[in-house]
Write the structure tokens for this entry.
Amino acid sequence: MGTNQSAIALLSAGLDSSVALALALKEGYQVKLALTFDYGQKAAPQEIKQASQLASFWKIPHKYLNLPFFAESGHSSLLRSSAKQAVPHLSLDDLDNLETSQKSAKAVWVPNRNGVFIEIAACFAEQMGASYILVGFNREEAATFPDNSKAYRESLNQALSFSTANQVQVISPTELLNKTQIVEEALRLKLPLELLWSCYENGARMCGSCESCMRLKRGLKQNEVPFDDYFANASV
Ligand SMILES: [Zn+2]
């Protein structure tokens, strides 16, 4: 990755996209826009609010877009239209159990969500003269979410070399890191942790027991960061 390059960032306010953005800024990227999507997910109000605050913190323009079509025939437990379908809640042991985490991943899967986000960001990137799209993939979840992997990013880059005139490329400075290492980067970069929203649920505080919360909690615990204030359920 070079310096003095411009990028469009995907920012959900979760740990990975927030740290990816912080890392890119540290490396000298000019981030022209941070994009957040409301695709009908239960956590959309919190994600948009926190992403907007993060963007203000870094003085980056922020935009959120509504993508209502995901909910029209979607069955994911992440969606507000599936209100009766609970998001799976996991224990720490479940995180390293492939069978349990695959089951959880299936329950929260939204068809081609990351693909759609990145393709939309590519439109903005070309229009705004940005060369890169910045995403927060991570190695830990790539095991159960193949659209979080380096292989997926590389295949997207090949496709984008055909579909964008300026050969927009996707970059992800977090993709080879696990959550503990990503938290370590967050601490090193002095990211305000209270601005994160990594939870699949909608609430005043992060639930503390969905898969995404549990992975964040484990990363914080392994870095000896007190986390009681961030979660409604702080036990591990
Ligand atoms: Zn949660």
